[in-house]
Design goal:
Blueprint (H helix, E strand, L loop, with lengths): L8 E7 L5 H10 L3 E5 L6 H9 L4 E4 L2 E2 L5 H14 L4 E6 L12 H14 L7 E3 L4 H10 L2 E2 L6 H11 L6 E8 L5 H9 L6 H9 L4 H4 L5 H7 L2 E2 L1 H14 L3 E6 L8 H11 L5
Parallel strand pairs: 1-2, 1-10, 2-3, 3-5, 4-5, 5-6, 6-7, 8-9, 8-10
Protein name: Putative F420-dependent oxidoreductase
Pfam families: Bac_luciferase
GO molecular function: oxidoreductase activity, acting on paired donors, with incorporation or reduction of molecular oxygen
């Protein structure tokens, strides 16, 4: 059995509602180690469904928003699902974005309080993962949870994060990518990144990584887009994922950007073959 605190290798990141039991089973058969569900409702019904359809996958929430779901009901849902599938549920939680949350205030204190309340409700630290970008929250993730789950970052951020949190903490990094079979790979990549360039926590983090205001303006420079959502053949995408593992991530989770309505499975299959996941 794969345990949450021993997640390794390559997983998949998909928005809540975009996976389904059949795709989850196919991804497991291809050798992916986990599925992370973006914008996850706190009732954990979707993770439970995907866990029931698979045998080994870890399913993570990426993330349950602290402003949207109170910790006590989330803890109750966690206990329901974890009792059925011990060691396979990663409860990813996070603070979200000030632009999207009217009540956004004192984010660090809110995170600490939320983690305190999850702990009081009996959710074990090793099954919690915390969305984190900056040093203060990265350190908190290492101290109070299994580890951080950074989003929209580069391998350089992964390297800095590992140096900061030390060797023992779990580090699960999201990476977008586009296969070159798309009609307009860079345009599709830009569409997948542009909305985040309006959110100041991501912008602030990108500026620390050596990008400029000019890179971020007008939907992102080619340099920025190519770093955040690399495009290429399956081998090139595999190399972009491996760069995070080489930089210190325990696991990198692939958000494969595809045309609306396109079946994503062939792309995941091609990348799995490039990574030799089924032989690993």
């Amino acid at each position: 059995m794969i345990m949450v605190n021993d997640v390794r290798g390559v997983g998949v990141w998909r928005r809540s509602g975009q996976t389904g039991p059949q795709l989850a089973k196919e991804l497991e058969n291809l050798g992916y180690r986990s599925i992370w569900l973006g914008v996850s409702p706190g009732d954990l019904a979707e993770p439970e469904e995907l866990l029931a359809a698979t045998d080994r996958l870890v399913v993570g929430t990426g993330i349950v928003n602290m402003w949207a779901d109170e910790p006590e009901p989330v803890a109750e849902a966690y206990h329901r699902v974890a009792a059925r599938f011990p060691g396979r549920l990663a409860l990813g939680v996070g603070i979200g974005h000030p632009e999207a949350t009217r009540e956004y205030r004192s984010p660090y204190a809110t995170i600490v309080d939320y983690l305190d309340r999850l702990a009081a409700a009996g959710v074990p630290q090793q099954d919690i993962v915390l969305a984190a970008l900056g040093p203060k929250v990265l350190k908190l993730a290492a101290e109070r949870t299994a580890g951080p789950h950074p989003y929209l970052v580069t391998p350089e951020h992964t390297r800095r994060s590992r140096d900061l949190i030390g060797p023992e903490s779990l580090l699960v990094t999201e990476q977008k990518a586009v296969l070159d079979t798309a009609r307009d790979p860079r345009g599709l990549a830009r569409d997948g990144v542009a909305m985040y360039l309006q959110l100041r926590n991501y912008v602030s983090n990108l500026l620390t990584l050596g990008f400029t205001e000019e890179d971020i303006a007008k939907g992102g420079s080619d340099r920025l887009i190519d770093a955040l959502a690399p495009q290429g053949d399956p081998a090139s995408v595999a190399a972009a994922l491996t760069a995070h593992l080489d930089a210190g991530a325990n696991q990198v989770v692939l958000q494969l950007l595809t045309e609306e309505g396109e079946d994503p499975l062939p792309g995941y299959r091609a990348i799995a073959e490039a990574l030799e996941l089924t032989s690993g």
